[in-house]
Amino acid sequence: MTAPALETRGLTLRYGGVTALESVDLVVRPHTIHALIGPNGAGKTSFINVCSGSASATAGTVSVGGRTRRARRPSDVARCGLARTFQNLQLFAEATVLENVLIGAEAQNGVGPLASLLGTPRARRSGRAAREAALAAIEFVGLAAERDHVAGALPYGKQRLLEIARALATDPAVVLLDEPGAGFNPQEKQELADLVRAIRDRGAAVLLVEHDMPLVMGVADRISVLNFGTLIAEGTPTEVANDPAVVDAYLGTDATEGLAS
Ligand SMILES: Nc1ncnc2c1ncn2[C@@H]1O[C@H](COP(=O)(O)OP(=O)(O)OP(=O)(O)O)[C@@H](O)[C@H]1O
């Protein structure tokens, strides 16, 4: 059996007296869209933060492609094959679309700042590869026409797509998407669902944190449910939508009607 794309064991994160994650064991299989859902404050962003190196676990391990991730800096994490987007967009507003994505693509090229500055042959080769990867990612999310536009001037929905392009430019095996549909209208959510499927279909695993239940139920292959930092359920969309503990903690009976049966 192939190694999980992402696996956590006993992942625990405490902020002083607040337990954001309590011994979370979660496996994301390759080529799957795995949604992580739960009420506000359940620990979903904390999970992404720990997996991506933005926060340090109090206990437990994170493995990417079967290798325990010890990297801490975001550039090291990118080289592990993991990339993320942020709930609150983290774009350089004054930079162009291409420049924003290049920052992502260059994050994993392993060329030090001195080599880049000196323009060594390796740095030049790697710079060309990063540009190609950036252009491909921009095209993949449908922003080719806006390549040279300043990020801060893009409509909000396109800024969200740009954030996804930046994550994809590192050619990750696992992409963590933190509420990518926030602020989207129904048409944009439909397009987002197609994009998430396309990311999976080109070979990556996706961990999707999202509150929009029709979107989640329509796109996810598997769903894990967090409540107060603890996993309370895992299964297919149908299994999760019919799990009494999930309905009670998060979905409510109204929310599940017509979602999955
Ligand atoms: N930097 C921090 N310092 C202290 N407590 C924090 C910090 N970040 C998160 N928390 C707490 O950890 C818990 C989990 O928060 P987290 O943001 O991971 O939840 P979430 O499921 O992503 O919520 P939402 O759906 O609202 O984004 C909450 O109780 C939150 O208040």
UniProtKB/TrEMBL annotation:
Keywords: ATP-binding, Nucleotide-binding, Transport
GO MF annotation, one: ATP hydrolysis activity
Residue ranges of domain ABC transporter in the record: 6-253
UniProt keyword Cytoplasm, yes or no: no
GO cellular component, one term: plasma membrane
InterPro entries listed in its UniProt record: AAA+_ATPase, ABC_AA/LPS_Transport, ABC_transporter-like_ATP-bd, BCA_ABC_TP_C, P-loop_NTPase
GO terms under biological process: D-alanine transmembrane transport; L-alanine transport; L-isoleucine import across plasma membrane; L-valine import across plasma membrane
Pfam families cross-referenced by the UniProt entry: ABC_tran, BCA_ABC_TP_C
Protein name listed in UniProt: Branched-chain amino acid transport system ATP-binding protein
Organism, as annotated: Nocardioides soli
